[in-house]
Design goal:
- The complex is a heterodimer of chains A (231) and B (284).
- Chain A has 231 residues and is an alpha/beta fold.
- Chain A has a domain of 121 residues: P-loop containing nucleotide triphosphate hydrolases (Rossmann fold, 3-Layer(aba) Sandwich).
- Helices cover 37% and strands 26% of the residues of chain A.
- Chain A starts with a strand and ends with a helix.
- Chain B has a single domain, classed as Orthogonal Bundle (ABC transporter involved in vitamin B12 uptake, BtuC), CATH 1.10.3470.
- The chains are: A alpha/beta (231), B mainly alpha (284).
Chain lengths: 231, 284
């Protein structure tokens, strides 16, 4: 579904991604783990086109999307749940879903279905983005990406800043999305959360993938965990 | 009493004219973080093109159509082929738009000469309206009406449509709007064109009472900037309230203390800025 081939990306003056490759299969949930500052957010920014790589290729369903504009990439089926959620302060909850709406892959995520998934948002439909709680903002960020019916969903630290109860709720929601056939790439620092939801995990260090395995294998591999995650 | 009502109506109608200019200036700034110094030039170009059209056809409506069409096109060309090359670079943008201001000023002088000119009013507004002791030109009321209609239309566009929501998303966080699939580049061109359209409409509407003359471009830009600063950059409500405020201040200032002229506009601006540095309705 998504193939990242040996990308090199600069962010400002710094050389962040130094030849990174990974794959996300149809219907898979893949997690990329790593400490702060290893380039996880730059990876997401490279895929959506905010900071395009200067070398390497990114393929979506076999098509090269490396140097397309971000809105083109989004329209071709990449949904983004960004770090810090980036909810539009002056838009109402309903307006967020309206501007994100597209037929996309035909998975059938409509305005109403998103509100069924997140009933809390229905109660706050007319509230502006800056009046929502952190948890509500996270739900809205997911909803905004889903109504575009993307082929793949990019999630940058979705559990960040959420209370444990909400993190568990988020895990359940991801489970439902996956059951519905969604392909999801998650970038996380929260190891427990990532291991619970992912089918496959990559470990990142200094702009490269240094390890990949099934989540249960990583759980048992204490040496790798200690070296790259400090646990 | 008559004095106050007449001057207030004059001030409000001038305020509506300023609103037409400030709304575009403010919307463009909000979405593109760009101060278009050639915005006042759209006003005089609108006025001159309108005047030329009236001379040929005799029709105010045709003049308005021709002026807004020509100036909107100029705006699109400026945005697409020039300003687009300098995203978020304030100094090159300022120099570029100032360059356009000079070019348009010289072009106007060359094509239409240096004599101040006014547009003839549409015939139906030639007459004055009499209410008791107050006699007021009906054209001024027409200007107020146009301002209100445009204000309501823009408010509806911004708050009530999907397009407006996209524009606000772009103002809030342009990168994230792109990541949501919004073509912010196209939206910028559209907003820039809308701003140019409104300024040209200002030239047509203001033509019969403010007129067009060399230097009007800079004067009207200056007043529109004051409006935007008082109202708050990027805020439509700010442009409207600021426009009314500056229109009234300017008019009463000139009527009551003619020797103080611009002081009556700039002193309140400085006071408002000292209390609210972002302007009355600005957030940034």
């Amino acid at each position: 579904m998504l193939e990242v081939q040996d990308i090199h990306t600069n962010y400002g003056e710094s050389y962040i991604l130094q030849g990174l490759s990974l794959r996300l299969g149809q219907g898979q949930v893949v997690a990329v783990l790593g400490r702060n500052g290893v380039g996880k957010t730059t990876l997401i920014r490279s895929i959506i086109g905010f900071t395009p790589p200067r070398r390497g290729r990114i393929l979506l369903r076999g098509e090269d999307i490396t140097h397309l504009a971000p809105h083109e990439i989004a329209r071709r089926g990449v949904g983004l749940v960004p770090q810090g959620r980036r909810i539009f302060a002056s838009l109402g909850v309903g307006e967020h879903l309206e501007i994100g709406q597209r037929a996309g892959n035909g998975a059938g995520w409509s305005f109403d279905r998103v509100l069924e998934l997140f009933p809390r948002l229905r109660e706050r439909l007319r509230n502006r983005g800056n009046k929502l709680s952190g948890g509500e903002q996270q739900m809205l960020a997911c909803g905004r990406a889903l109504v575009g019916n993307p082929d793949i969903l990019l999630m940058d630290e979705p559990s960040e800043g959420l209370a444990p109860l909400l993190v568990r709720e988020l895990g359940r929601i991801l489970g439902r999305l996956k059951a519905g056939g969604a392909s999801i790439l998650i970038v996380e620092q929260n190891l427990a959360f990532a291991l619970r939801v992912a089918d496959h995990v990559y470990l990142m260090s200094k702009g490269k993938i240094v390890h990949e395995s099934r989540p249960d294998e990583l759980l048992r591999n204490h040496e790798v965990k200690a070296r790259y995650l400090g646990v | 009493m008559t004095f106050w009502v007449t001057q207030a109506l004059n001030g409000i109608s001038f305020g509506m004219l300023l609103f037409l200019l400030a709304a575009g200036l403010s919307l463009i700034y909000g979405l593109m973080r760009m101060l278009n110094l050639a915005h006042g030039s759209y006003y005089i170009l609108g006025g001159y093109v309108g005047l030329a059209t009236i001379k040929v056809t005799g029709s105010f409506v045709l003049a308005a159509l021709a002026a807004t069409a020509v100036v909107t096109l100029i705006g699109v060309v400026m945005e697409r082929f020039f300003l687009r090359r300098f995203p978020e670079q304030e100094l090159p943008q300022a120099l570029l738009t100032f360059g356009f201001l000079l070019i348009f000023a010289d072009l106007s002088l060359w094509l239409w000469g240096g004599t101040p000119q006014t547009l003839p009013k549409p015939e139906i507004f030639e007459r004055s309206i009499r209410m008791g002791t107050i006699v007021f030109p009906s054209y001024r009321l027409f200007v107020i009406g146009v301002g209100l209609v445009i204000g309501l239309g823009l408010w509806w566009l911004q708050e009530g449509t999907r397009l407006g929501a996209m524009i606000r998303a772009g103002v809030d966080d342009a990168e994230m709007a792109r990541g949501t699939g919004v073509n912010v580049g196209l939206l910028s061109t559209a907003v820039f064109a809308l701003g140019a359209f409104l300024a040209a409409l200002g030239g047509i509407i203001g033509g019969p009472f403010v007129g067009v003359y060399p230097g009007a471009d800079f004067e009207i830009l200056e007043m529109a900037l004051v409006v935007v600063i008082i109202g708050g950059l990027g805020s439509l409500k700010g442009a409207f309230v600021g426009g009314l405020l500056v229109g009234l201040l300017d008019n009463f200032g000139k009527a009551l203390f003619p020797e103080l002229a611009l002081f009556t506009v700039f002193a309140p601006m400085a006071i408002i800025l000292a209390i609210r540095p972002t302007g009355l309705f600005g957030v940034r």
